[in-house]
Amino acid sequence: MGQIKVARLLGVLVLVAGLWGCGGGAAPTSPYREVGRWLATNALPDEVVALQEPEALQGMTSQPVMALPLEGGASAVLAALQEARPAYCLAVRSVTWEGVQADPWFGEHYRQVAVSADAQVSFSPLVLYRYTPSPFDDGALVTLAATRRVPEVGHVTVEALQLSHPRRIWPGEPFYLTVTLRGEVRESLRAVLMLRALADGRIWLRETREQPGGLPTEAWSGEQSLTDRYHLVPPAGLPPGAYALELVWLRPNDAPFGEAVTLAQLTRPAEVSQVAPSPDHAAPATFGDAIALLGYDAPLQASPGTTITVTLYWRALASAPGDYKVFVHAFAADGTLVAQHDGQPANWAYPTTAWQAGDIILDRHPLALAANLPPGEYRLFVGLYEAAAPATRLPVRDAEGALQPDGHLGLAVLRVR
Fold first, then answer.
1. pLDDT surpasses 70 at 33
2. Among 169, 156, 304, which residue's Cα sits nearest to residue 233?
3. pLDDT at residue 124, as a whole number
4. Closest listed residue to residue 296, CA positions, set 376, 361, 384
5. Going by C-beta distance under 8 Å and a sequence separation of 6 or more, which residues neighbour residue 202?
6. Residue 382: pLDDT above 70?
7. pLDDT, tens digit, for every residue of 263-295?
8. What is the mean predicted confidence (pLDDT) over 73-92?
9. To the nearest whole number, what is the mean pLDDT of the chain?
């Protein structure tokens, strides 16, 4: 314990020397100060910065600071990052951080955004990383415990799964699946993942893994869990309907190793139907006398340079009196328009002139965020205007009947970082 205290004391002395040395009391010029300046310009006020010596940033940033473990090496630091997932972490030159930076999970979730170096400081350069959510992180972990067994050959179990789109899928829009596996078999099995239409049994998507979990199944120990990841893209012609996501095990002679495991049931919604929808976010409002908004789907966080999709759920209260276009706008706090998409509903396939009372219309709008869009909070708005007179917007009333200013309705606050 005495050696640890001495080491920490020496670290503090080195830090102080790096902050104040060579200047005889001049203002600090340490790499930590440069990190603080970068955070002041680029980070959101409530985003947490994690580092092993939080006192090093004291007075140099207004960001919340999180202490990472000083002991336990790379595994302890990784465990803390995986649990808390701070917006930023600051790496110093050390054996511990070499181990952290080499870890695949860290490489997937943290991206280098700034480097601050000082040749006179032993722990320089400092490398600042920003957390980037992985699409494989979306969705809840669902326990399945589905076992398939063949006597004298062995057994395989799908223990759990995590699905980024637990309900709805769309043509051309990726979704992400993680499957947790365990088993002990004496043959090399193949895993075949399929998206099957429940109406007619047609297979619309198929992906085969020769080594599920990254190992031949005959090398599985039976004690250790393995994971398989799938990046799945439904084909462009996928029709509306219900689908089963299934996993089939095949033996070397192509005989099935037990029945298929149904991982999830998914729906490709119809753009126009009479079925009551279940949007992720309710947003009841009326636009004019004939059109109601029921709710919407939209991400609440995104990164610069990406495209998000806002799905609107409309209901026709009566036949619409005119041809209207829908707009979705994203505004900065100062009122600057930073992204927009305009068009006829249902990807130009179902104009309001065709709407009939009772129709439910799913209307999807992509919003492209500029690569240089500053981090911050942006408000999403939706409205309708006359196709022949874009300056004429339909009046909007919220659920309480209050008339909304500027002819648009505020939806989500989108956080960009």
1. yes
2. 169
3. 78
4. 361
5. 196
6. yes
7. 999 999 999 999 999 999 999 999 999 999 999
8. 96
9. 90
pLDDT at 29 over 80: no
DSSP characters over 227-259: EEEEEE---TTPPSEEEEEEEEEE-TTS-BSSS
Place of tokens 């209307």: 363
Locate 126 and state its tokens.
Answer: 């400092």
Do residues 122 and 7 share a domain? Answer: yes
Q: Hey, what amino acid is at 360?
A: I
Domain, as residue range, for 338: 272-416
Strands 65-67 and 49-51: parallel
Report residue 4 CA to chain centroid gap. Answer: 40
N- to C-terminal Cα distance for the chain? Answer: 41
Q: Which residues pair with 378 in a beta bridge?
A: 414
Q: Which residues pair with 256 in a beta bridge?
A: 250
Q: Residue length, the chain?
A: 417
Structural domain ending residue among the three candidates 210, 245, 268: 268
pLDDT score for 119: 66
Q: Which of 268, 292, 319 is the last residue of a domain?
A: 268
The tokens describing 317, both together, are 């209260």
Unique residue bearing structure tokens 């600057």: 336
Q: What pTM, to 2 d.p., does this model score?
A: 0.82
Count Cα atoms within 13 angstroms, Cβ side, for 319. 3
**Residue that the structure tokens 């998000």 belong to:** 308
pLDDT tens-digit series, residues 109-145: 999 999 988 767 777 799 999 998 899 998 899 999 9
* pLDDT one-digit tens code per residue, 238-249: 999 999 999 999
DSSP for 175-206 reads: EEEEEEEEEEESS--EEEEEEEETTT--EEEE
The verdict on 185 and 244 lying in the same domain is yes
Q: How many C-beta atoms lie closer than 10 Å to residue 108's C-beta?
A: 13
**Structure-token pair, residue 413:** 């606050």
| 360 SS3 class | strand
Q: What is the number of domains present in the chain?
A: 3
Please tell me whether residues 157 and 264 are part of one structural domain.
yes
pLDDT at 6: 34
Identify whether residues 204 and 181 lie together within a single domain. Answer: yes
CA distance 123 to 186: 51
